[in-house]
Design brief:
This protein has 216 residues and is an alpha/beta fold. NADP nicotinamide-adenine-dinucleotide phosphate binds next to α1 and α4.
């Protein structure tokens, strides 16, 4: 599949690398084509990897991953071009973390709204699926080293067909326990998990951990 990965941070690089290793064609997008980290990633990833502006990336992908800083996602999608995203699944991995007052960050949106819902409202003709935001980047692409891969990844989104496509990709990436929470409104829950995620990281001294929903 042709996949556009919007974002050049740890998440963008990790997901893009995994998708190339699985045989997908991947373009990484950034504010300006030729961004240093994107160019370095293309050189490392090799065949099937390319880079360009957010707009070029959005036009390229049959499916998009949104992996930019949370507080700027609406600007990023504007730059990507709403017409380039129309009708496509968009996997939203972002968190609404506001570091302006230092660490730990606060949530820039919560309780009555979420970034996932804001993205879906901005892009009514795009099929937004929120997932993977509740784990560290390395665990997103390599679930096995944490507990043998036996942990839970959540899905939120309004479009069942898009969720099925994303579920297929998650299985390809090595995830085994996928829990569909329901519509995009359920993104509030997974985004508001972040304050707890940060405290668990502090207590354990590592970001390589995960949650497992044990059904009764
Ligand atoms: N790091 C993790 O392990 C982790 C885990 C779960 C979820 N997340 C979430 O995943 C997302 C990506 O995290 P990350 O750590 O990989 O990267 P990040 O540092 O949060 O974001 C990097 C990306 O944001 C873009 N960006 C930054 N400021 C911008 C602005 N003013 N306008 C437009 N674009 C801007 C950058 O664009 P350029 O490429 O042009 O520089 C770059 O592509 C975040 O929302 C984060 O909360 C991260």
């Amino acid at each position: 599949m042709k996949v556009g990965v919007l974002g050049t941070g740890m998440v963008g690089v990790t997901i893009a690398s995994k998708l190339v290793s699985l045989g997908h064609e991947v373009m990484m997008g950034s504010r300006v084509a030729g961004q240093e980290k994107a160019v370095a990633w293309v050189a490392r990833a090799g065949k099937g990897a390319s880079e360009g502006s957010f707009a070029a990336c959005a036009a390229f992908g049959e499916l998009l991953f949104l992996c930019t800083q949370g507080t700027v996602v609406l600007d990023v999608l504007g730059a990507a071009g709403l017409e380039n995203l129309r009708g496509k699944p968009l996997v939203d991995v972002t968190n609404p973390l506001d570091f302006s007052a230092g660490f730990p960050p606060t949530l820039s949106v919560k309780d009555t709204d979420s970034l996932g819902e804001q993205v879906q409202r901005l892009l009514p003709d795009t099929k937004v699926v929120k997932t993977l935001n509740t784990m560290n980047a390395s665990v997103m692409a390599h679930p096995e080293p944490v507990g043998g891969g036996d942990h839970t990844v959540f899905l939120s989104g309004d479009n069942p067909t898009a969720k099925a496509v994303v579920e297929g990709l998650l299985l390809e990436m090595g995830h085994t326990d996928i829990l569909d929470l329901g519509g995009i409104e359920t993104a509030r829950g997974v985004e508001m998990y972040l304050p707890l995620w940060l405290r668990v990281m502090g207590a354990l001294g590592t970001a390589d951990f995960q949650v497992k929903v044990v059904r009764g």
